[in-house]
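Hello forum,

I keep getting stuck at the same step: I have a sequence, I want structure tokens, and every attempt I make locally crashes halfway through. Rather than fight my setup again tonight, could one of you with a working pipeline run this one for me? It's a single chain of 123 residues.
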Amino acid sequence: MKKIAAFVLVISSLLAVGCTKSDLPPENYDPEQWMQTHQRAEVAYTDYFSGNYIVQTSQGFAVIENWSGYTPRDFDVLYAHFQFSGMQTIYNRSGNYFTSGRIVANWLTWGEAWNILDQISRQ
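Reply #2:
Ran it on my machine without issues. Output:
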């Protein structure tokens, strides 16, 4: 019985470790490779008070909630998976740094993006 419990514990821990996803770039990661595998966007508007911002992608606008100390400037070029909601590692090509942010909403019109940015910035 102890062997079965130990076996189940080992297998479950391996599955838990194997199923975690990390999008943080490893040390010495090549930004050129990052840009080839991620979507390009340009910062359309930055709320410098809250640090949240709107980006324009090829599929419309996306609202990003800033989760790090670095806030991009207007017209900065960024690379990430903007088509997916949730936490992302974002590469700022203009500033040459990686940062973290939460994609709150995507595939938006300009008016929809403004409304969502206003809602999350008030919280």
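Confidence is low (pLDDT under 50) at residues 5-10, 13-22. If your local run keeps crashing, start a new thread with the error log.
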